[in-house]
Amino acid sequence: MSESPQHLRLVEKIRDIIRKRNDVTPTLVLAEDHRENTTTFLTDEGFRPDLYYVDNNLIILGEAKTSNDLCNRHSYAQFDSYIKHLQTATNDSMKAVLYIGVPWADFRWTKRYFQKIKHTSIEVIIVNDFGYEEKI
Predict the structure, then answer these.
(1) Which end of the chain has fewer beta carbons closer than 10 Å to its terminal beta carbon, N or C?
(2) What gap in Å lies between CA 23 and CA 76, rounded to an integer?
(3) 62-79: per-residue pLDDT in tens?
(4) In the predicted model, is pLDDT for residue 91 greater than 90?
């Protein structure tokens, strides 16, 4: 499936933010769903995140959503699947983070959505297309 320019920009924004983390090895290529060399990682439910990183006792999934693709059953199922995968992957030595990239107009709605669902053992960070990020 061809991704929209807005979706690709959101994925790039998430990737840039992840690469700036102190606990990430920036030279490692993050597998990106929209590139030719996509990750083979799939959740048990068959979803493939836009970004996937595992190294140094850290696992990160990143998913970008445009306004047209944010509020639907498929996206909710993806979010649930990613949270389930990260909760399963975490333990005393493994930290798990989910990045969700959305347009600025959808930032508050997305923040409220993730505040309502249970994700106790993982960190959720919402990112907008201007690079603003907020941990939930």
Answers:
(1) N
(2) 28
(3) 999 999 999 999 999 999
(4) no
Q: Give every CB contact of residue 21 below 8 A, 6+ residues apart in sequence.
A: none
Instruction: Write out the two tokens for 20.
Output: 């700036």
Percent of the chain at pLDDT exceeding 70: 88
Q: Which residues contact 11 (CB under 8 A, 6 or more apart)?
A: 3, 32, 33, 34, 50, 51, 62, 64, 101
- Inter-residue contact 31 to 62 (CB < 8 Å): no
Distance, in Å, from the CA atom of 85 to the CA atom of 99, rounded to the nearest integer, reads 14
pTM for this model (two decimals): 0.91
Neighbours of 87 (CB within 10 A): 15
> Residue 98 and residue 21: Cα distance in Å, rounded?
13
Convert the pLDDT of each residue in 54-63 to its tens digit. 887 899 999 9
C-alpha distance across the termini of the chain, in Å: 30
Residue found under tokens 């798990």: 96
Radius of gyration in angstroms for the set of CA atoms belonging to the chain, rounded to a whole number? 14
